[in-house]
Amino acid sequence: MESKQKTVLVTGASSGIGLLVASKLHENGYKVIGTSRNPEKYLAKLPYKLLPLDLNDDHSIVSFGQLLFSQIKQLDVLVNNAGYLVNGLAEETPIELGRQQFETNFWGTIKLTNELLPYLRKQKHGKIITLGSLLGLVGLPNVSYYAASKHALEGYFKSLRFELNQFNIKVVMVEPMSFKTNIGESGTVATGTIPAYDTFRQKVTAYTKSTFDNAPDPAPVIATLLQTIKEKNPKFSYPVGKGSSIALLLQHFFYKVFEKSILKSVNASK
Ligand SMILES: NC(=O)c1ccc[n+]([C@@H]2O[C@H](COP(=O)([O-])OP(=O)(O)OC[C@H]3O[C@@H](n4cnc5c(N)ncnc54)[C@H](OP(=O)(O)O)[C@@H]3O)[C@@H](O)[C@H]2O)c1
């Protein structure tokens, strides 16, 4: 019954985690609004409303906010899910690709949150749940800009949580390990340009590919999102995935052990 009264906005609800969580919420009786850069491509297939939003376009963010609140009176939960992945070795990734990664994953998410915050503050309640990543807590090779963009989100929302407490707005991060979605295909891969990296690049590319190929179904992420949506007083951080607690523990207390195990896996990859 409580779910029927809640309106949830899920950005990037055309694919992967966003599509699954929006569908599940709709099934459970929530009023769901999703977003996509190309809603017309998906609308007919989806049971929930899909509005146009491009996080890389300031006009799109402003028009989206206006359109959204012309259609709803109250927004209970914002799920900042939209994002993508830039793959490649740090030195070989053109700065422009790194900038674009931040433009979407960090700045786009922040701009959208700012656009909606006046409404949330006015209604004096709400929840902002952002898809970080375990890579927002841990660094790995071949994903430096992605990891940096997710680390930046962690820091930003950690601060924002204190500031929004007075307005009864809860701020939460969900930090999944690798799960099977379209993130591998929808992202960008930087081209190798520096011969000195040839051997390492070959191994780390195989390591990344095997991580994608062996990634599990994202059901645990969806379950965690549903839990944080329902919870009255959620924590700040929700890492999700088998081995996430061990990875965090190792990198926190035994960094050299963590580093050694990653390098060992990369070097063994073909
Ligand atoms: N899958 C994983 O292993 C994993 C792990 C940790 C964190 N995450 C995070 O989970 C979130 C969802 O990723 P996913 O794995 O479900 O990937 P996905 O299947 O590729 O879906 C990404 C979604 O983001 C939207 N999107 C991408 N760029 C956008 C932009 N510029 N403006 C607006 N929307 C945009 C896409 O919508 P349109 O193309 O329709 O616009 C799509 O619906 C991301 O933030 C990702 O970083 C994923």
UniProtKB/TrEMBL annotation:
Family according to the record: Belongs to the short-chain dehydrogenases/reductases (SDR) family.
Key words, A-Z: Oxidoreductase
Domain of life: Bacteria
Name this protein carries in UniProt: Short-chain dehydrogenase
InterPro entries recorded: NAD(P)-bd_dom_sf (IPR036291), Sc_DH/Rdtase_CS (IPR020904), SDR_fam (IPR002347), SDR_oxidoreductase (IPR051911)
Coiled-coil intervals: none
Entries under Pfam families matching the protein: adh_short
Gene3D superfamilies: NAD(P)-binding Rossmann-like Domain
UniProt organism field: Pedobacter ginsenosidimutans
GO MF, any single term: oxidoreductase activity
